[in-house]
Input
Amino acid sequence: MFSQFSYPVICTDKYVQTINFYEDHFNYIPVHETSDFVVLQRENQDESFIAVLSDKSECVPQECINITKGLIISYPVNNVDAFYQQTYWEGLEIMSDIKIDEFDRKHFLVKDPNGNLINIAQSQISRKAKKKYEQSALLKESV
Output
């Protein structure tokens, strides 16, 4: 049985740059740090963690070390429009303009220093979207 929380670990050759990126732009703070591994916790969020591992780490056998690519991290916010403006002014690499998904949630994508995507999404879905989601779940159950 699991006794701890789980979190994604980004293995990178841009160790310090990656840590700074998540601290500076996404309100993460270090809660455990060594010279080649850090666990970051989102400020005021008890259950939101991400870790960064240097590709030079001796914790993992070198033949198993791979730079993390293709990861998409979802980051809920209360005001997508304001966060979009903030990321624009901070010079982050915005990969898509704000779009509305099939559940009426606004979201957009930015790229981290490693090329991984961060999906900035509206934290609340509308009643209309919730109803649509519930209906699609019911359809799947009936199949």
